[in-house]
Amino acid sequence: MRSRGVLHTEIELQVPFFDVDSMEIVWHGHYVKYFEVARCALLDRLGHNYVQMREAGYGWPVIDLQLRYIRSARFGQTIRVRAELVEWENRLKIHYLISDAESGERLTRGSSVQVAVEIATGEMQLVSPPALVACVQRALEA
């Protein structure tokens, strides 16, 4: 059973021609890009996006990525991508759901895990930096 996120955001986008193959089906690797766009929107909502992470002295590489393809997205289709914050105290775990914007039909789901790495030393952190935790707490209180 998937954990529910404590915060979420949704974006909508129309599948562009350059994301599809000759059968007008989205190439499987582009779903990761759609996850990233939603993740950036979620981080912006938290007030701790990639620029602010770098300014705080940390990089956040993805160390695990899971995708489950249910149904193909197609050229011209408007899709909704939901990103939900699931974990943030020791790592950043986000669940995703891609669905058809009109019908709500589920197309793809997945999750990503990122960890903080101190830029100056290259050392992985075992807990999330205080700057991220504080931003999440402020967002939860808002």
UniProtKB/TrEMBL annotation:
GO molecular function: fatty acyl-CoA hydrolase activity
Keyword Ion transport (UniProt): no
Keyword Hydrolase attributed: yes
Top-level division of the source organism's lineage: Bacteria
Alphabetical keyword list: Hydrolase
SUPFAM superfamilies: Thioesterase/thiol ester dehydrase-isomerase
PANTHER family: 4-HYDROXYBENZOYL-COA THIOESTERASE FAMILY MEMBER, NOVEL THIOESTERASE SUPERFAMILY DOMAIN AND SAPOSIN A-TYPE DOMAIN CONTAINING PROTEIN (0610012H03RIK)
UniProt record similarity statement: Belongs to the 4-hydroxybenzoyl-CoA thioesterase family.
Protein's UniProt name: Acyl-CoA thioester hydrolase
Source species: Geopseudomonas guangdongensis
